[in-house]
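I have been asked to look over a protein record a colleague put together. The record follows directly below this note.
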Amino acid sequence: MTQAAAIVGNLASAIGFSTEEASLIADLKAGSEDAFAVLIAQYHQPLYSLIARSLDDPADASDITQEVFIKVFRSIRSFNGGSSLRTWLYRIALHEASNQRRWWSRHKRREITLDTPPSEQEEDAPTLAMILADGHGTPLDHAEQGELRASVEQALRQLPESFRTVVVLREIEGFSYEEIADVLSVNLGTVKSRLTRGRHLLRDLLRPCLRVSRAEPALATRRSA
């Protein structure tokens, strides 16, 4: 092991990064184009998906994602390791998406929010990760899954931004409560409260779709009997 590699490894252990991540950060700070190519390959799709779900018009997601990587390129040398690289990237992405939403609100249309009371949790409701995952199946399965995915994406856009962001980070991106609190710079209680509220609102919006989804297998069984 070279001295430089040993230093990177010791630094990674000290601040809680993996050696691979610490090495990537060091290369990014050194201005390595290869390192930025690796960063983009690893994070472009998840950041794009996060931004698309955070905007009023998902058609803007591509441009905003590009802006995020430009900002990362310009500010990586100021990254001090106070959080993981992933958390830092998501924080920047959400900040840029928030700026775009404010612009949209001022120039395009009046912001619409949803404020309905929470309902009881739906039994056996599929998770967002299950609904939005790209699975395998028959053409009919894909068609039905595509319709449900579209309904979920539409329902997510009806959630107030503060609830939607937490739901997406937790249910789709798989962040822990602590990571979400770090990304959003809020306390754990706020994260849990927003997540609970967001889940309730989303279930209310999706209730008709989920009822149909659960009813169809039973109907098919009766027809084949």
Remarks:
- DSSP finds ten helices and no strands in the chain.
